[in-house]
Amino acid sequence: MKRIVILGAGESGTGAAILAQKKGFDVFVSDFSEIKEEYKKALDEHEIKWEDKQHTEELILNADEVVKSPGITDKSPIIKKLKEKGTHIISEIEFGGRYTNAKTICITGSNGKTTTTLLTYHILKSGGLNVGLAGNIGRSFAWQVAEENYDYYVLEISSFQLDNMYDFKADVAVLLNITPDHLDRYNYVMQNYVDAKFRIIQNQTEKDSFIYWADDPLIRAEVSKRDIRARKFLSH
Questions:
Q1: What is the mean pLDDT of residues 66-83?
Q2: Mean pLDDT score, 145-163
Q3: Set 55, 68, 113, 197: catalytic member
Q4: Which domain does 30 fall in, by range?
Q5: What percent of the chain lies above the pLDDT cut of 90?
Q6: 56, 129, 213, 227: most buried by Cβ count inside 10 Å?
């Protein structure tokens, strides 16, 4: 049985653990901080083993794959040790995306993500579509994949989440803007942060759509030098 370790037991980690258990994995959850009571209760109800206020290495380093909370940096000692072992580390969005065929509208940007995500969700839901709201907002994407059956998801996605997404594909990718932010996570190199944001379009095909703000000079420059396969829609 494949062993999945979840690092971080907040909304995303708990949801990932519940989905992993439902899919038949050997699941263990570890949080270096104290887990909130609501998440302890959810994990206990699903009979998922967990620990908090520590990372027990012998229970983590034997993982076949790790789902990491976006709040945990690559500088974390446990992440460094997992990388030394070559353990595959992914985000909750990446994990959840493996188990749904729903269409995804994925929204990122330095500013305005939440407002745009909520508005998009409201429009689709008001239009009668069977749609879920998740990502960096609302209930965990993986948790909803485990327990709901939506046809569409509107996902607010941060650069931290995008960093550990590899095979996930947005059917519609929306990039609002890019301004200097979180540069401590990107070695104070702006291009690293820009590259993280542009992961929103990775794996897109000619059948997918990329919507971006063309008046943003950083976005405009990046679009001009990238081979983007998705249909492009400009906003001014």
A1: 94
A2: 95
A3: 113
A4: 3-90
A5: 84
A6: 213
The vertex-1 CA angle with 72 and 62, nearest 5°, equals 40
| Residue 206 reports pLDDT greater than 90 | yes
Q: Verify whether residue 111 is a known catalytic residue.
A: no
Same domain, 56 and 9: yes
C-beta of residue 76 within 8 angstroms of C-beta of residue 84: no
Kindly report, residue by residue over 183-197, the tens digit of the pLDDT. Answer: 777 778 888 889 999
Section 39-48 average pLDDT:
97
pTM, 2 dp: 0.93
Per annotation, catalytic residue among 41, 53, 80, 182: 182
130 is catalytic: no
- From 155, 160, 69, 171, select the one nearest 110 (Cα to Cα): 160
Active-site choice (55, 136, 164, 197): 136
Active site (annotated) includes residue 182:
yes
- CATH number assigned to the domain comprising residue 29: 3.40.50.720
Considering the domain architecture, whether residues 86 and 99 belong to the same structural domain is answered as no
SS3 125: helix
Q: Cα–Cα distance between 50 and 219 in angstroms, integer?
A: 42
Alpha helices in the chain (DSSP H): 11-22, 37-45, 57-60, 77-85, 92-97, 113-126, 141-147, 159-162, 190-197, 217-225
